[in-house]
Design goal:
301 residues, D-Maltodextrin-Binding Protein, domain 2, 48% helix, 11 helices, two-stranded antiparallel sheet, LysR family transcriptional regulator, DNA binding, Arc Repressor Mutant, subunit A, DNA-binding, transcription, 8-stranded mixed beta sheet, alpha/beta, DNA-binding transcription factor activity, 3 domains, 22% strand
């Protein structure tokens, strides 16, 4: 059984768009030609791949299995082409890293700087994502290494501890909680809160804490990232949770104060995930060892 790589690429497009017409437009091919390729693929496999419904095309069980393998195959080929091009241009390897924004700002930027100073011939492709997406990218082989937080299911992956940070509460200096050395989450819940990004590690911690209190949160606004949290707190739209590393900068440059959050979950633990460390390409293994070793030096500038 032989597969045409172009047909597999088009098959993935049809699955992702849920429509022959939309996939044809995205791939710049005539719908009739795309339909013919899908029919030929079904003939090759001797099984139906799609069922038409009011919602569009639905995948059969065979199509779902093929989609998983086709994605891995196409991405491996793309990575092979990229690495061979890198060698032709004098670059000796590429590392695909997906990570949460918090870890990029606090730790990974410095870790990459130090690593590339030692290995200038390597290249790192860094993508910021929420923790569930980071884990999914590693599982689906679109990332070599993932840095994530929380309780995202990591079945089939190897997980290593990376770094920890501590959350504090930032607020205007005249806020009723500003004179306290420490505050409990139940005290915070009495005031408007600048909510973290939906789906983020921090959001999962906040929602769990609110559920334990059985107390509705007064979410005045929800933002993506800690710089917007700072801006919203300065605008007196609520108090906000940020890592201590960020709070130190905010307090020194704005009319804000930071108060320790007196909760066990205020210390967040970040982790690294990979598929199989022993079978990773040599450059990826090298970078993984560097990240794991960086815990001992702990850059925080």
């Amino acid at each position: 059984m032989r597969f045409d790589l172009q047909s597999l690429k088009l098959f993935v497009a049809v699955c992702e768009h849920g429509s022959i017409a939309r996939a044809a437009e995205a791939e710049n091919i005539a719908p009739s030609a795309l339909s013919k390729r899908m029919s030929h693929l079904e003939d090759t496999l001797k099984t139906a791949l799609f069922v038409r419904s009011n919602k569009g095309l639905e995948l059969t069980a065979a199509a779902a299995a093929l989609l998983q393998h086709a994605r891995v195959l196409l991405r491996d080929i793309a990575q092979m082409e990229s690495e061979l091009l890198d060698h032709a241009e004098g670059v000796r390897g590429q590392i695909r890293l997906h990570a949460s924004l918090s870890t990029i700002v606090q730790y990974i930027a410095n870790d990459i700087r130090d690593f590339l100073a030692l290995h200038p011939g390597l290249r790192i492709d860094l993508q910021e994502s929420l923790s569930p997406a980071v884990v999914r990218a590693v599982a689906e082989n679109t990332a070599d290494i993932g840095v994530f937080g929380g309780t995202t299911v990591t079945t089939g992956l190897q997980v290593f501890p990376y770094r920890s940070d501590r959350l504090v509460v930032i607020m205007p200096p005249d806020h009723p909680l500003s004179r306290k050395e420490r505050v409990k989450f139940r005290e915070m819940a009495e005031y408007p809160l600048v909510g973290p990004q939906a789906g983020s590690y921090l959001n999962s911690l906040v929602l769990r804490a609110a559920a334990d209190l059985d107390h509705p949160l007064k979410l005045s606004i929800r933002v993506n990232g800690f710089e917007p949290v700072r801006s919203m707190v300065e605008a007196r739209l609520g108090i906000g949770l940020v890592p201590e590393h960020h709070a130190e900068r905010y307090v020194s440059s704005a009319p804000l104060v930071a108060v320790q959050l007196d909760e066990t979950w205020a210390e967040r633990h970040w982790k690294i995930c990979v598929r199989e460390a022993e079978s990773l390409p040599a450059p990826v293994q090298l970078f993984l060892r560097h990240l794991l070793g960086s815990q001992d030096t702990g850059h925080h500038e």
